[in-house]
Amino acid sequence: MADLVTIEEVPRWVPGKLLESSKHLGWKNVGLRSYSYPGRDVVVPGLQDYMIVAYLDGATKMQRRFEGAWTRTHCSPGKLSLLTRSQPSHWFWQDPVDVCHIYLSEKMLANVAVDVVGRTMTEVTLRDILSLEDPVITGLVEAFQREAVAGGLGGAIYAEALGTQLAVHLLRNYAEIQFRRPAPARRLSPEQRKRTLEYIERHLDQTLTLDEIAREAGLGTWTFGKMFRETFGRPPHAYIIERRVERAESFLDRGVMPLKEIAFACGFADQAHMTRVFRAKRKATPGSLRMIHKDT
Questions:
Q1: Which of 9, 147, 203, 218 makes the best surface tag, with the fewest CB within 10 Å?
Q2: Residue 73 reports pLDDT greater than 90
Q3: pTM here?
């Protein structure tokens, strides 16, 4: 893809008289430029940012080609045009107009998209709309203009807040969102599975941490946790608790070792801890289970 045009480079492709600019106001992820244009026939490469054009003064027949056939309409004060990022476009109009450009960065729209829909996205595309009337967008453009002219305390924060409102409105009404497909679930390899289970068995009587087990498998903690769950159908801590209960049951079957020693041999903090776990997992205490085994 060719280099994308920045806010500052737009006059190179669409020459006009600059009326207002947010360049020196410290705004982040949002920008404003107002221009006075004579009639033009211009081809504009893809923009780095999303752009909203608000028509302020003058009226003209407007034509734009955007991925195919020409779109024709009449633009006058109160009208708006939307232009998605990274998309070349061809504009033609004959009569002079004053316009305000509002630019939203890819970062802003992407971050807001994730917050709005709760999923990771790969791309947001604004619909090809050459002429629309939207009082919400118009009101936000006017707020941007007032801030660019008058400014005030916290101006950069205020401008970013306006940009967030605009981004939410665009996403709700004028955007197409492509979501990232979830990566296919990965499981532990046979070797990783063998090493993991052997490590757990060797250290079942000790305090086991997820970091230590993950290192044994050669994985990071977060990745290991996901892959362990996918492999065994439960998280590591649940597997370890179940193995401790099963080992304790094998000691109870023999009927020789004191309950306190069984607890420590199986990695429980103490006998009381083992009893609580047995009540939760087996609906019985270790002592009662031992009695059952003796009777049978």
A1: 218
A2: yes
A3: 0.62
